[in-house]
Amino acid sequence: MALTVCIVDDDVNNINTAGYILSKEGFDVLGFKSGKAFLKHIDKNGVPDLVLLDIKMPEMDGFETLAEFKQRPKAPEVPVIFLSADEREDSKERGMQLGAVGFLEKPFLPDVLVQSVRQNTGSRQ
After folding, report:
1. What domains sit in the chain, N to C, each tagged with a CATH number?
2. From residue 100, how far is each of 1, 3, 25, 113 by CA, in Å?
3. Please, what sign has the CA dihedral across residues 95, 99, 105, 106?
4. Where are the alpha helices (DSSP H) in the chain?
5. Is the omega angle on the peptide bond into residue 107 within 30 degrees of 0, that is, cis?
6. What are the tens digits of pLDDT across the range 12-48?
7. Higher-confidence residue: 87 or 52?
């Protein structure tokens, strides 16, 4: 059974690019253009195996989304990796304090994305 990765990013191109790369590697990928849409989905369908999360989004940024997500049942054990163009050290530190397990900078390298997802899901695909 394929592992599910949710990509939360207000830029559809980022969702499509990362989604394509991960789908080719055998992951089931779901994309969401906002933190609110992602949270609504998991409340109805349960948590994924991993989340890729942008920081800078309108309405609800990645930090707020992560904080809300980690309050859901079973969410504390789900790895969250920030996938963002925000390179500031304080953003990385804040993300890690909120429970993120990693931080990939955009533009990302496909091999690094796949390796990071595999590493954090224990996937041997």
Report:
1. 4-8+20-27+35-120 (3.40.50.2300)
2. 25, 19, 23, 15
3. negative
4. 12-24, 35-45, 62-69, 89-98, 110-121
5. yes
6. 999 999 999 999 999 999 999 999 999 999 999 999 9
7. 52
